[in-house]
Amino acid sequence: MAKAFAWMPPPRNTHVMFTSHYLRGALAPKSIAVVGATEKANALGHHVFANIVAGGFKGQIYAVNAKYAEVKGVKCYPTLAALPVAPDLVVIVTPAKTVPQLIDDAGQRGVKAVLVLSAGFGEIGEQGRRLQELALARARALGIRVLGPNCLGIMRPEIGLNATFARTPARPGSVALVSQSGAVVAALLDYAWTSGFGFSSVVSTGGGSDVEFSEILDYLALDGSTRSILLYVEGVHDARAFMSSVRAAASVKPVVVLKVGRHMTGLKAAMSHTGALVGDDAVFDVALRRAGAIRVQAFNQTFAAAEALASGRMPRGVPGNRLAILTNGGGPGVLAADATADNDVELARLSAETLESLNGALPETWSHGNPVDIIGDAGTERFTTAMQALLSDPLNDGVLLLFCPTIALGAEETAQALLPLIKDSEKPVVTAWLGDADAGKGRAVMKRAGIPALTSPERGVESFSYLSRFVRNRQLRLQNPAPHVEEFEQDVAGARRIVERALLAGRATLDERESKGLLRAFCINVARTELARSADEAVALAQEIGFPVVLKVVAQGVTHKSEVGGVLLSLQGVEDVRHGFDTIKARVTERAPAAKFIGVNVQQMIRRPHGRELIVGLSRDATFGPVISFGMGGIAVEVLRDSAVALPPLNRFLARDLISRTRVAKMLDNFRGLPAVDLEALIGVLLKISDLACEIPCVQELDINPLLADEGGVIALDARVLLGDGPLAPDATYSHLAIHPYPKHLARATRLKGGETVLLRAIRAEDLEAERRFIARLSPKTMYLRFHAPLRELTMERLVRYTQIDYDREMAFVAIDSSDEHGEGEIRGIARYTRNPDGSTCEFGIAVEDAWQGRGLGHALMNALESCARDRGMTEIIGYVLTENDDMGTLMRARMYDARRDEDDSGVMRYCKPLQAPAGNGNAPPPRPKALTEEA
After folding, report:
1. Residue 235: its pLDDT value, please?
2. Among residues 630, 760, 635, 641, which one has the least CA distance to residue 683?
3. Of 94, 129, 378, 615, which one has the greatest count of Cβ atoms within 10 A?
C-alpha cells in the first residue's frame, strides 16, 4: 500500500479542522457582550442592545454596565472580567476615551474580537487620531481584532444578530453588504426591507483602523451563506491587499462595487469623510475590471446588479454581450434597443433558422428582426414559441423579456407559462414587467424563482449588462502576466544607468535624448535625435542625419515645446536649419523669459503619410501606483481626451483590451483609404512600457507623444520622462505595483532521487483541470490526512479559488511531470503557504501524489516554498499536521522543524521553523489567529 504522505491546510484563514475563519468570532459570533448597554432612552447603548435583543440572536447575550443589575431583562455584569465566559465579540458603545482601557479589559478576559461603535476618533482630528492609535496598539499587543471605530455595526440575519443602531433590520438573504459609510448602510437597509431584499451579512467598517476591507472580503469569499457581495467604497488604504481580496472573492462569487468620487467634488467629499486616498476614478474603474468585479454608478443599481448576478446564469458565448429582446409592445422594444448602446450591449442578429421558425409561428405583422415584437394580441403560446426560438439561437448570449399588460393576456399567466422554459435554459433571461397592478404579479412569479424581474426596458438592459460585464471582467481577472516579456531583448541595466546618471546629477526630468535612450533600451523604435547648442552644430547634425529635419527646443523650464513655438518641422536645407535655430532661441526669450535656453534637438523628419498620431503614457496613481495610458495623440490630446488606462503588468490580451477602449481604435483598422496599422507592433510598445513600469519603479511619468503608427510599424517621435522618489529596481514582490506579476522567475527544473525531472513553478489559473486530475489520483488515506475528512473531490468553487492566487499573500508551487503517457503536464505535488494576519509569519501545506512519494519531491517542494517565503520577508513558517501522519512528521523533523502539540486540538501537531531573525529589537509581534489555506 502506498505511503500516506500528504497534508494541506483548509480554506484560507481557517482553522485546520475547518471550524472557522479567524474573523468568525467577529462577523458571526456565538456569544456577544455589549459594554455600555443601558436603559437610558436615546443613548447609543440603549439602541444597540435593543436591536440585539429584538433581533432574536441565537447565541448568548451579555450586558456590561456597573449601573444596572439587568438591561431589558438580560442580566448585567459590572465589568468584562465578571463575565462567566469570554464572549466571541465585545461591542463597545461607551465614549471614545474609555475604549483603550476596555480593550485592555477585553484582552485580560480572553476576548479576541471587539466592535467599536463609538465616535470621537480619527474623524475629529489629531487628538482623536492619537486615541485611535493608542487603542489599536493595545489591541495588537493583546492579539485582538478591532472592527470600527465610528461605524454602524454588523448584522448576521441568519443567526438573528443585529449589533447596530440602524432603524431598519435586515432580512436573511444571500447577499453580503460591506460599506465604509454607516449612513449608506442604513439607507440601503431601509430600501432593501421595502423591496424584500435580504442579506447574509452586513458590515459597516467605519474608520477601518485594524480589520481591513480585504480581510472581510476573504471571510465572505468562502462564506457558504453568501452568494454575492456588495461593496460601498470611499477610499482604499492598501491597493494590493484590496485588489488581491476582490480578485479572490470574484473568482468564486460576484462582487459589485459602488464607489464615490467619480468627479472632483465627490472625491473631495469622500477624502474628508474617510481620510483615505481615493485615487483617479478611471484608474479605480480599470482596477475593478482587472479584479473581476462589477462597478455600478448609482445607489439604486446595487441591488439590481446583485439580483442579476445571484441568478447564477451567465452568458457563455463570446463576446457575451449579444442580447435578444422579446416584447409584445413595439415602444418598449425601441426603448430597450436604445438602452443597449448606453450599456455596452449589442443587439444580437437573428440566425436564419430563428427567422424561419418565427416566420412560421408569428403573424406577418411581427417585427422580423430584433427586438422581436410579437404584437399586442399575443397569447402564451406565441410567447413560449418565440422564447424557445430565441433561447435556441446561437447568435445571442441572453434574452430580455418585456411584457406589457393587455386585455388579451395577464402578467401572472405569462410568467407561469414562460417559467419552465427559462429555468431549463442555460442562457440567462432577464425579465421586465411594465406597470404595477397586473405587472407586479408577473414580477413576483419570477422573483420567487430567482429570475431577475425589473420594472422598465432600460433597467432590463442594464441588468443584462451586469452579466455580460461579469463574463468580460472574468477574462481580465484570469490574466497573470509576468513582469518581463522574454521575446524582447531589452537592456534593463542600460536603462537604469540612464536614470541613475540623471538622479546623481540632481535632475528629476530626463531630456528628450535621455528619454529616447530609455525607450531604446526597452526596444522601442525612436526617431534619431541629437543635441545642438549652436546654429553651426545644428547645421552639421542636420547634414549628417539627412534632410528634411525637425528642430525642437531644449530649455530648462519648458515642458510643452509647442506652447513656446519651439518646434519647426520639415526643414529642407542648411539655411532653413540655421534660421530655425535662431528663431526658436528668440521665441523662448520672448515667450518664456524665465526658461534657460540650452539648444535644439535635431531630429530626423519621419514621413509616414498613413501614420496615426497616438499617445502612450505611464503615470503614478496615488492609490494604485503605476498606470499605463493609451489614446489619440498629437497637440490636441488634452482637448480630445480620448484615452484609456490599464494597470501593469500587461500581456497581449490586456494590451488589446486597452486599445479597444478608445475611440481611436476604430482608426487603426482600414480607415478612409488608409491601410491598417501594424497592430502587433503597437501592442509590443504597450508591453515594453509595461516592462519599464515593472523594472524601473522610480519613473513617475512618461509620455510618448506622438507615437506614429502605420502599416510599417511604430516609431516614437517625442518623449518625456519625469523621475520620482521610488527605487531604481523593484523588490522581490514588485510591491510598487497594485497587482503582483506572475513569478515566472521562480520556475526551476529539479531532479529527484530516481532520476526523474519535474518542473517546479508557481500555480496558474489554467492548472485547474490538472489539479482536478491530481485530486482524483490521491488515495482515500492521503485524502483523509490532507482534508481531515473522507472527501473524494473538490468543488469547482474550491478549485477556482486554489488555482487563482495573488502571489503576494499566498504562494503555491506545483511539481509538473511532462512524461505521462498522454503527453500532458501532470501535477505530482503541490505546496502552498499563506501569509498570516501578522504579516511576518506564514502557514504552509503540502501534498504529494501517492505513487510519487518517497522520491524526494516533498523536500523539493518545501525547499521552493521556504526559499520564497524567506525572500519575501517571512520570519517563521508554520504547519498543522495530524499526529497519525508519521510520514509528514518525518519530513518536518528532517527539515529541522520544531514540533509541539497544538493547544486547541490534541490530535494535531504544530510544526514551525524560523526563516530569518526578526528585524529590530527581536520582539516578535503577538500571535494572530491561524490563517490557513486549503489546497490540494
Report:
1. 82
2. 630
3. 378
261 neighbors 233 (Cβ within 8 angstroms): no
Task: Report the helix count and the strand count for the chain, using DSSP H and E.
Answer: 28, 40
Q: How many CB atoms are closer than 10 A to CB 867? A: 13
Q: Which helix (H) or strand (E) holds 52?
A: helix 44-54
Spatial separation of the C-alpha atoms in residues 303 and 309, rounded to whole Å: 10
Lookup: cell for 462 = 442594464
CB atoms within 10 A of CB 413: 16
Pairing of strands 70-71, 74-77: antiparallel
Helix (H) or strand (E) holding 772: helix 768-777
One-letter identity of residue 535: A
Share above pLDDT 70 across residues of the chain, in percent, rounded to a whole number: 91
Residues sharing a CB contact under 8 Å with residue 671, sequence separation 6 or more, in sequence order: none
Measured in whole angstroms, the distance separating CA 498 from the mean position of its chain's CA atoms is: 34
pLDDT above 90 covers a percentage of the chain that reads 69
**Binning pLDDT at 50, 70 and 90, where does residue 924 land?**
very low
Confirm if 550 and 568 have CB atoms less than 8 A apart.
yes
User: What are residue 626's DSSP bridge partners?
Assistant: 620
- Residue 49's Cβ-count burial label (10 Å; 0-12, 13-18, 19+) is buried
Cα dihedral 588→589→594→596 (10° resolution): 70
pLDDT in tens, 399-448: 999 999 888 899 999 999 999 999 999 999 999 999 999 999 999 999 89
Q: Which residues of 191-218 are buried (b: 16+ CB within 10 A; e: fewer)?
A: ebeeeebebbbbbbbbbbbbbbbbbbbb
Cα 403 to Cα 415: distance, rounded to the nearest angstrom: 9
The total of other beta-carbon atoms located within 10 Å of residue 507's CB is 13
Amino acid, single-letter form, for residue 795 = T
Q: Of 103, 104, 67, 60, which Cα lies nearest the Cα of 83?
A: 60
Is residue 1's pLDDT more than 60? no
Query: Which residues are CB-neighbours of 721 under 8 A, at least 6 positions away?
Result: 509, 510, 514, 515, 518, 699, 701, 702
Give the span between the Cα atoms of 88 and 108, in whole angstroms: 14
How far is residue 390's CA from residue 388's CA, in Å, rounded to a whole number? 6
Q: Which helix (H) or strand (E) holds 303?
A: helix 302-310
Which tens digits make up the pLDDT trace of 505-530? 999 999 889 999 999 999 999 999 99
CB contact at 8 A, 517 and 692: no
* HEC readout, 870-930: HHCCCCEEEEEEECCCHHHHHHHHHCCCEEEECCCCCCEEEEEEECCCCCCCCCCCCCCCC
Cell of 752: 529527484
Distance CA 563, CA 633 (A): 16
Beta carbons of 135 and 33 less than 8 angstroms apart: no
CB-based contact 339:363 (threshold 8 Å): no
The alpha carbon of 121 is separated from its chain's Cα centroid by a whole number of angstroms, namely 30
Please check whether residue 309 is in contact with residue 294, taking contact to mean a CB–CB distance below 8 angstroms. Answer: yes
Bond into 649 cis (ω within 30): yes
Cβ(686)–Cβ(474) under 8 Å? no
Q: Is the dihedral of CA 431, 437, 438, 443 positive or negative?
A: positive
Q: Are strands 509-510 and 453-454 parallel, antiparallel or unpaired?
A: unpaired
User: What is the Cα gyration radius of the chain?
Assistant: 32
The overall average pLDDT reported for the chain is 88
- Residues 132 and 144: their CA atoms lie apart, in Å, by 14
Task: State the pLDDT confidence band at 928, using cuts at 50, 70 and 90.
Answer: very low
User: In angstroms, rounded to a whole number, what is the distance separating the alpha carbons of residues 809 and 396?
Assistant: 40
